[in-house]
Specification:
heterodimer, A: mainly alpha, 22 helices, B: alpha/beta, D-Maltodextrin-Binding Protein, domain 2, 5-stranded mixed beta sheet, 11 helices, about 40% helix
């Protein structure tokens, strides 16, 4: 413990060097910006900046900047989710659900503030955990094998039907659709293409970013443009900027739980910020005394997921730095960045490059403070965006979204996909079908499918492997309890009280 | 008067296009298509190599990433480009192996390209955990023969060089292992560390764990022993076939020979660049120099071997 403290102070002494502070600051600003702009995300930004770091004479500064872009984007990602229902960053898609509802009720200020505060608490908490117990958690990360991933995916799928405010039956249909679309692409176990229809760009599956932006963002813009002057967001008051006492009370627990959940999920390779925010949302809904508020502007539905995605972004540095295992696309690019700087991330990094290891971690404390100071005053500014008429804002967002989508892989198929998803999002909106369960099932389907078949290969074709390993058995057990409880409470609450069709405004 | 000047300018501009491309080649920047995402091993090495080759060509080389669909998106774009020497690209084994998976391609991954030069092989090796009972490849194979289907192994995916090399090993030795395909090379290391598979056949993802003594390297598939791991035998030494993980520079089919020769000379000279060699070493890749004509023969040979292996696994 004392040793850890010493090392953190050593790291801090490096992180507060003027040039490193400057790198962190630049990264935070850039990260917030790409987080806010829909479609432009940390992956593209870091990848574009990577060749520049070739020239950097100071490896620590370069890595600090790249890392701060990543967690900075997690702060910025919630902004357009809340204001426009356009996920600024994939991990903020959950925030669209209740954040946007809050904005419609004139509570955009509190939603944005709680997202920034939650991100700060979770980010800082996660870095503290990372500094003290990070290396110990590395073991936990690799103990997650195919059976555990399968159990986690099933757990997520069961929960995802209940996301949003619609009826469970509609949610369930959207989950099935999401699974169908999520399976498009090359099958990992046989190498055969499924539902790709000979389109090369579909061989890797449907890309998440254009899909989410189209389904949520463009669908909502099209829907709003149709409303001719009676624009839902525009007509609402701007209201307070800071949460009131009641909102604080509702958020505090959600921030705490979201931080812990996000931290744990971020440790698992392939887990990442988006699954962390999904789990947090569903857990908050299950624990809430007023679950019916979810999907209609529950502040806990913003606070939890936004904390979770930040905690996960920080904890995904554990497998990267201690095992050299990039758990998601962003850390994979960071991994390359470290290699370029002649730093081999992995078990020996602590021994060979303690300056980089502790310097980066310490800079995350500093970065989180910078981001809070940067983002809280911006809330007032962002809220002003709501005054811009949708006929100006809509096309502007569309333009940025197209630009961002094209920048992902310089591929026009992705842009076409964005358009198709936008059309589909509009239809779903008209039909009062929730895109949330669809998006979650889409993400989880591939994990579920691949891990089930890997698990079966490992277990010589015997499904028992999934319940015979302690960790996966535990997750399957919890899932079963949730299913039974949900069915039980559905019948107990009486089918008399029918779910109302969500209003279409 | 103005009009006349405009016409003249236009005519001059047209002339620039009509002029035979090879007279002053290269007189404008060259585009190098890397069909992988930024930051990967091909991207890193190709960027340094291109930088070095610029010195011999006198024009900048602009690297563009066209990732996706196992390199076939970038390769399709390259195949369609004009064979004027201003659009070139990198070739990895993935590009032609994917055809053997039965994927419909809009181009022929071998015949639709001109071959400029070779630059190296990815070092692929078979790794086990340090506490594993298998000290040599021979012991592993012997166990796999005595206990068919008992040992599980991970690779970057089905039909990859890594997977097919183990298929060749099984076919030639009579051992039987179960393949658990992972989602890319990066996923293989945690699969072994967590004990979810018994061994992995992978590109250098094992390197840091060999150094930390958490993993042991049993054999590498390379033409000669690696400078970094001089004690580790090659598959060939042990009497087993192995496929190569090709890294080459190619261009669209029909590239005029004088341009091709100019590019070949520049890219082969660039192999001596210090920064390039350092990057290759860092990624545990071996620098290999081959003339363009031999690259095509090598690729055809690799393709035939892979095809043979895939057919024998289907039986």
């Amino acid at each position: 413990m004392l040793n850890s403290l010493e090392q953190i102070f050593y790291g801090l002494s490096l992180a507060v060097l003027p040039q490193n502070l400057l790198y962190a600051f630049m990264g935070c600003i850039l990260g917030t910006l790409v987080g806010v702009l829909p479609g432009l995300g940390p992956i593209t930004t870091i990848a574009v900046l990577l060749p520049l770091t070739f020239q950097a004479s100071d490896p620590l500064g370069a890595i600090i900047m790249l890392a701060s872009i990543y967690y900075g984007a997690m702060y910025g990602g919630s902004t357009t989710s809340i204001l426009l229902r356009v996920p600024g960053e994939a991990a903020s898609v959950i925030t669209c659900i209740d954040g946007y509802e809050m904005a419609k009720q004139g509570r955009a200020g509190p939603a944005l503030s709680i997202a920034a505060i939650g991100s700060f608490v979770a980010g800082t908490g996660s870095v503290i955990a990372l500094s003290f117990v990070g290396p110990a958690f590395a073991k936990f990360a690799v103990s997650f094998g195919p059976p555990e991933y399968f159990a986690l995916a099933i757990f997520g799928l069961v929960l995802s039907a209940t996301i949003g405010g619609g009826s469970p039956a509609r949610g369930f249909c959207m989950v099935l659709l999401g699974i169908l679309f999520g399976l498009v692409g090359t099958d990992t176990v046989t190498g055969v293409e499924r539902f790709a229809m000979g389109v090369p760009a579909l061989a890797d599956g449907i890309d998440l970013v254009p899909l989410l932006m189209g389904l949520f963002g463009l669908g909502e813009i099209l829907y709003n443009l149709e409303q001719k002057g009676e624009l839902s967001v525009l007509t609402s008051k701007i209201g307070r900027l800071l949460p009131n006492r009641e909102e604080w009370k509702e958020s505090a627990g959600a921030i705490g739980r979201g931080s812990v959940l996000g931290f744990l999920v971020g440790l698992i390779p392939g887990g990442g910020a988006i699954i962390g925010s999904l789990l947090s949302y569903t857990v908050e809904k299950k624990l809430s005394k007023t679950p019916e508020k979810f999907g209609h502007g529950a502040i806990a539905g913003v606070a939890g997921p936004e904390s979770a995605n930040n905690a996960a972004a920080s904890s995904s540095f554990v497998p990267l730095l201690t095992l050299g295992l990039p758990g998601n696309a962003v850390t994979a690019v960071l991994f390359a960045g470290l290699l370029i700087q002649n730093v081999q991330p992995g078990p020996l990094m602590l021994v060979k490059n303690p300056d980089i290891f502790w310097g980066v971690i310490a800079s995350m404390y500093v970065g989180n403070v910078m981001l809070l100071i940067l983002n809280l005053p911006l809330v007032g500014l962002w809220v002003q965006l709501l005054r811009v008429p949708v006929w100006i804002l809509g096309p502007a967002v569309l333009l940025v979204a197209i630009f961002g989508t094209y920048s992902l892989r310089s591929n026009w198929t992705d842009v076409s996909l964005l358009m198709i998803a936008g059309g589909a999002g509009y239809i779903l909106r008209k039909a009062a079908l929730d895109a949330g369960p669809f998006a979650m099932a889409f993400i989880l389907a591939n994990i579920m499918d691949t891990s089930l078949r890997q698990a079966l290969l490992m277990g010589d074709g015997n499904i028992a492997i999934i319940v015979s390993r302690p960790l996966s058995a535990l997750i399957i057990g919890v899932t079963t309890v949730v299913v039974i409880y949900t069915v039980y409470s559905y019948f107990k609450a009486g089918r008399a009280k029918k779910y109302e069709r969500p209003d279409n405004s | 008067m103005k009009l006349k000047r405009l016409v003249l300018a236009l005519a001059a501009a047209c002339a620039m296009f009509v002029q035979p491309a090879n007279a002053q080649y290269p007189n404008k920047p060259i585009t190098l298509i890397v069909p992988w995402a930024p930051g990967g091993s091909t991207d890193q090495t190709a960027r340094v190599l291109a930088k070095a080759a610029e010195n011999y060509l006198g024009q900048p080389i602009i690297v563009v990433n066209r990732p996706g669909a196992s390199t076939t998106i970038g390769m399709a774009e390259l195949a369609k480009a004009a064979p004027d020497g201003y659009t070139i690209g990198t070739l990895s084994s993935t590009g032609y192996l994917v055809k053997l998976q039965g994927r419909q391609l809009s181009f022929d991954p071998i015949e639709d390209f001109s071959y400029i030069s070779y630059y190296g092989d990815n070092l692929i090796g078979i790794a086990v955990l340090t506490d594993s009972p298998y000290k040599t490849l021979k012991e592993l194979v012997a166990f796999g023969k005595a206990n068919p289907g008992k040992l599980k192994y991970g690779t970057a995916g089905v039909g990859t060089t890594q997977h097919l090399t183990i298929e060749a090993l099984q076919r030639d030795s009579g051992a039987k292992f179960v393949h658990v395909p992972q989602q890319g090379s990066a996923a293989s290391a945690p699969a072994l560390l967590g004990g979810h598979v018994d061994f992995i056949m992978e590109t250098s993802v094992w390197a840091p764990f060999i150094e930390s003594k958490q993993m042991r390297l049993l054999a590498v598939s390379a033409t000669k022993r690696s400078d970094v791991y001089p004690d580790v035998p090659t598959f060939t030494e042990l009497g087993f076939k192995s496929l190569r993980s090709v890294q080459a520079i190619i261009a669209p089919k029909g590239l005029p020979e004088d341009i091709r020769a100019k590019l070949e000379s520049a890219f082969r000279k660039a192999l001596n660049d210090k920064a390039f060699q350092a990057t290759m070493q860092k990624l545990a890749m071996q620098v290999v120099d081959l003339p363009g004509a031999d690259v095509k023969k090598l690729v055809e040979g690799e393709y035939a071997l892979a095809k043979d292996l895939i057919e024998s696994t289907k039986k």
